[in-house]
Amino acid sequence: MTNDTAVFDALRFDPQLGEKVSTGRMGTRQAIARDGLDIDADTLAYCPHEWIDASGYVDLELARKFRHPIVL
Description:
Largest sheet: 3 strands, antiparallel
Strand content: 35-45%
Structural class: alpha+beta
Strand order of the largest sheet: 2-1-3
Shape: elongated
Order of helices and strands: EEHEH
Number of helices: 2
Radius of gyration: 12 Å
Number of strands: 3
């Protein structure tokens, strides 16, 4: 596997805090934008394309199972 897919942390606006907070998910630029979330550009990382699920987010089970680090 190669680290060939760019992924970012997805952010959402928290009205109680008045700021953007992490959703706890990493995904492709397209998936995050499609879901109306914001991209945290500072968190650019790369992961194997096999880890991207049908919705465009990193499959956490695969990431945990293979313990291959996401490269920052």
